[in-house]
Each structure stands twice: as C-alpha cells, then as structure tokens.
Amino acid sequence: MLKKLFPYLGEYKHLAIITPLLMILEVACELALPRFMANIVDVGIPSNDLNYILRMGAVMLVLAVCSMLCGMFGAKFAAITGQGFGANLRRSIYNKVQEFSFADIDRFSSASLITRITNDVNAIQMMVTMALRLLVRAPVMLIAALAVAFTINPSLVLVMLVTIPLLVLAIGVLMMVCNRLFSVLQTRIDALNATVQENLVAIRVVKAFVREGYEKTKFKTSNDDLTQATIQVGMRVIAMIPIMMIAMNCATAAVLYLGGGQVVAGDMLIGDLSSFITYIFQILMSVMMLGMSFLQLSRSIACARRIDEVLETEPSIEDGATAAQDLPAPRGQVEFRNVDFKYQAGGTGEDVLSGIDLTIHPGEFLAVVGGTGTGKSSLVNLIPRFYDVTGGAVLVDGLDVRDYPLEELRKRIGMVLQNNVLFTGTIRENLLWGRPDATEEEMIQAAKNAQAYDFVMGLPDGFDTQMAQGGTNVSGGQKQRLCIARAMLRHPAILILDDSTSAVDTATDAKIRQSFKENLAGTTVIIIAQRISSVQYADRILVLDDGKINDIGTHDELMARCAIYQEIYQSQQEGVQE
Question: Where are the domains of the chain?
Fold first, then answer.
C-alpha cells in the first residue's frame, strides 16, 4: 500500500537517499565508541598510559561529533522530505477531488475527504519522516550491534537470541490488534469532522431554533466516541513499554550475571563486559524503536488505504472524446431525449426524472415550475453534467453532453445554483470567477445588468470590498445578484438560474429579466422559479410533476388547460390579495 505512495516523494527523492546513508554513518560512529572506551579501560588505565588514553579520547570525541552531525542533518533532511511528501500527496488528492462529480463527492462525504487530505496525510507524512531515520537506523543498529557483540563474546549473545524473538512476537500481536483499531479511529475522526462542519455551516439555523443544547450533545457523542477509540489504541500501544522494559532489564541482568562470572574466572575483561552491556542496550533500544515504528506504520497503512481509495477512484463522469475542433458551434440548443435519472444509479432508488422529451431552442427563455421535489434542479443539473443520466440522452447543440470535454461543455453554460456561493476575497475577485480575463467595463456592465451595481458602489470599498466566507456580510438578495452578475459576465450560450431570484423583490426581479432580453440576446435562458410573476413572460413554461413533464406552453396556454399551473397561480394570487 505504501509503495503506491512512494512516487509522491517527487523532487525530494535525493534527500530520501541521503538521509538513510547519514543514519548508517551515525550508527557506525555510535558502535565504535564503546570499543574505544573498552580499550581505555582494558589497556590505557592498567598500563597508566596517559598518551594512549588521550588518543583514544580524541578519537571518541571526533566520532561523537561526527555522529551528532549525521544525526542533525539526517533529522533535517528527513523533516524536509516528510513535509515535501505530504505537500505533494495533499496536492494530488485535492486535484483528484476536483475531478469528482457530485455523485463521487456524495459517496465519500466532504467531511471524510477533509479528514483524508489533512489527518490521514499527516499520519503518513510522520511515517515517512520516521521511516527515513528510525526504520533505517534501528535495524542497522540491531544487526551491527549483534555482530559486534558476537565478536566480543558469542556465548552471551545467546541471551539476546532468546529475548529478541519474544519481543518480536509481542510486537506482532500488538500490531494485529491495533491495525483494526486504527481504521476505527480514522472513521471516528471522520464522524467528528462531519458534526463540526455541519454545525458551523448551519450555525444560523442552530441559533434560530435554539438548538445549541442538542448540537452540544451530538458533538459530545462524536467526541466521546473518538476519545474512546483513541484510548483503546493508546492503552495497547502503552502496553509495549513495560514489555520492552521487562525484556531489557531481564537481558541486562542475565548478561551481568553470566558476564560477571566470566570476568571473575578471567575469561572476559571488564572493558569488554562494559562495552557488551552498552551494545545490549543499543540492541534492545533498536527493537523498541522498531516496535514503535511498526505501530506507527500500522496506523499509516490504515490511512494509506483511505487515501488510496480516493486516488484510485475513477470519476464517475469523465471527459468526452470529441476533440475541441470537432465540437459544434455554441448556439444554446438543449435537447432531452427520453431522459431518466435517479441519484442511486447502481442501486434501487426510484427515478427522480422519467421519460423527459424536450427541446429548448437557441435564444429561448424557458421557465421551469412545479412543486417541491418534482425534479426541477435535477433536470438542469444534467445539462452541465453535474450528474449523468441513467437513461436516454441530453444534447447541447446537437451533441450528447457525454461526448464533450467537460471544460468545453461548461464554458458554454453560465449557472447560478440554488445555494448561492461567494468565496473569500473581494467582490471583484468573485465576479471575475465568471471570466478572469474580463475588462473593468465588462465587469461593471455585468453588475449593472444583475442590478448589483448600485449596492456595490454603496459599500465603503466598492468592488474591492472583502467578502466574508460564504458571503455572510451581504444580504441574501445581494448575494443572489452578485452570483447572477458572475454568470452573466461569461456571456454564455446557455444561462441557467435555479431559483436564483427568490430573495429579491419583484421590481428588481423584473429589471433582471428585462436585462436578459436586452443584454443576453441569443442566449438560451432556463430559469427555475417559484413565483409565477418571474416566469409568466417566458417564451415557454415547463410544468413538472413527480419527475415527468405535465405540460409545456405559454402563460396564457397553461392558464387555459393546465390544472397544476392554475393551482400554483391561484395560490400565489390569494397570497397577494391577503
């Protein structure tokens, strides 16, 4: 699993090679130090040779400095490599998510995707940093220290050959237990993020309905679940510490007992025993570091699986194969041919739209009305391929939308969604989302056409006024007008407005409709609206009922023959009269 992520080392591969080499050099220096100390104890001190002791001390000092420098630069390079790896991986996941359709994002959930881009990547990033140092240093130290210890006293090495397998067995059992728990832990983080995200996005609703207490309880449940999962993992990881300490103390006691007997018998020098004990500590510390690293590796594998799931997901909506030069000229014609659609394409969900046959002519002003849940938004979402049809076909300018490159298709369409979104930045930056290369005059004209210019100029900084996240520092009607201006700035062949004037007054609504006729001549306009006054002057009005076309015609025609349209009209007239 982790091998799949190695290419994301990218430009840091050379540091990923240098760092292990520095760790090996550090280990070599550390392994040499006890032997020089043994020479001082066994040779220099008994012979009272001060020059020999000073020479050995000078060599030890050089080795210590070399070890320190190798460790310092190794830590630096490992940190740079880990951070660079994390940055590359986050960028790749983010870019992949940009390719996802609405259905793909719905499948993962936005909270889970945020966790994978942040928390999961951080866990793997830490693993890379650790792997370049500890997972190189520890096994090299273990093998080399065992080899040196064997040259000093082969019989005492048998103590380690008994201790190490027992430690490896204990670590293996802990990894098997923790592997499942780490997956649970990441899922609990997903749930907590989802709770926080939902609360912050809907904080105004929470306060309006005085549901802070309920939300606190919901957060407490998610938080407690995460805490419990973390404790379960932590208790098992902590269990490794006493196991290691018991093994280390038992091994040291055995070496002191057996080695001490050999020293007394004259079969082993005191300096050799001292250095042997040092190597024992290095061996056992290496095993401990490996154990901790493998536990971190276990969590990283769980995170890597979740990240790989995103990276390996093929977007459910892919670019069409038609080359840009072979695309039809943008005229704004839209055709639905016996279209069926349901959100659970591979499941058993019911059709949201069924048997839709409709042709919208270039430059036509088409309105779509109907009750809540009749499929109005679903219908227009099929045109830019936010979702794909499950039956039939949608054509733009005579070509199936599935044959268009997505960028080319969506360039022809200006869309104002039901949930109006403004981004952090200035009003100018938000409007230029529609067309980044637009001139100042074009931007101002778009604002005037959407009836947004006057209120923008009334702000202290005009078009340079900063927008809060989500555009919360302007009213709902102002936000809608800015979103309409952004879409109009594109001069699209098709303009879709999904209930996008619901928050503006009827006079402003009428001015916006008039600007469509005057400034978007030739543009096909599809508008979903709840107010009959917003649609009665449309060229045609489509009435949807239960995902099917109930009727289509002008206002007068529908008033004469369509019961559903008559009912909507009468209910709104009664509201006006009251």
Answer: 2-311, 330-412+493-499+525-578, 417-491
